[in-house]
Amino acid sequence: MDTNWMSEPRSSTLFLKGLGEFLDVECKKNANVAGEIKCPCVKCVNNLWVTRDKATEHIICNGFMEGYHTEHLEVGKDVAQVGIWGTKSKGSPHNHWSFRLENNHKLKKITIDHGDLIFSLKFTAEDDRGITHDSKKMGGWNGGNEESEVTFDFDEEIIGINGTVGVSTGTYAGYTIISSLSFITNKTTHGPFGQTTGTPFEVPWNRGSFGGFYGLAGYYIDGIGVYLKASQETARVGLWGTELSTGPHYRWSFCLEENYKLTMITIDHGDMISSLTFTSEDCMGSTHVSNKAGGYNDGTAISEVNLSWDEEIIGINGTFGASTSTCDGKTISSLCFITNKRSHGPFGHVTRTGFSVPWSKGSFAGFYGTASYYINSIGVYVRATM
């Protein structure tokens, strides 16, 4: 958790915002059964249980106790945001929706109101005492003509979603919406719900990573994204392509070190992606070049993506399918790197099955996948931002 706010004047907006986020975490993780937390102000010195409001008052008036520094606050950011698919326009606050699993809660049921598109979603979670908690309904200013329920077994969890993005028709025509959704678990695929028309999307993730959903909604579900729990500050999203399991030499990984910035990607390509190499720069200006991923076979062209000092990757898209070689299974046939400034690519040959995954600015932490003669698959490391 960023602690720079602690050195700001206690009446400043930055201090009050940081204090609010800190107390959110304290109340979530360290509150007693009465909802009280230990107050870390100068007078209470972490010995007195008080309400959140009282802790706010004490800290603003008295300041933090001496020695209460960063080590007490490394509990903040543990969730990464991946998406949104659908409309990305930012409407008024009532158009934003969010469902996030609390600690020790498990998703028990999803209620989907649908017809030729997804009208609304509702989520039911169960805590470790067996008590259920229903979210509010997301979307649904218009109702569909069918309501379906997905009920999860005790040992079942979501490990991915797929769906389609379409355009609404009828009375409220012309909106970019989620036209269909499927929920993929470690046991089965639930769905599709809605009508599978429009642009498809798919995002898998590691078992144990699911943290909730968020998006935009009004008459319908306009957009959807995923909260993923970060393990050691990063979460893994993907793979797209094929995952070969014939040995560790087929696996590759590039993860940015702390305070490093990605400055260049070198792509060896032809009718598919042969190899990838990543160059990063540390805070002292020294460059670091990764090992080459893939490339047992060379492509016909080498391209470089050079990122400016204020440019960062916020998404990728591409295609994958069977390789022209008889011995390498599915491969990544094209890749495009999307930044906060532009799209770089596509590199390779845009054919076969497509994929696209965006993420929040400031989240990118690296790539990983499988490779041999070519890049067989790719996934993304994303950092927790919440």
TrEMBL record:
PANTHER family: OS05G0143600 PROTEIN. Keywords: Lectin. Residues 79-230, 234-384 form the Jacalin-type lectin domain. This is Jacalin-type lectin domain-containing protein. InterPro entries: Jacalin-like_lectin_dom (IPR001229), Jacalin-like_lectin_dom_plant (IPR033734), Jacalin-like_lectin_dom_sf (IPR036404), Transpos_assoc (IPR029480). SUPFAM superfamilies: Mannose-binding lectins. The keyword Transmembrane does not apply. Pfam families: Jacalin, Transpos_assoc. Belongs to the jacalin lectin family. Gene3D superfamilies: Jacalin-like lectin domain (2.100.10.30). CDD domains: Jacalin (cd09612). It comes from the Eukaryota. GO terms for molecular function: carbohydrate binding.
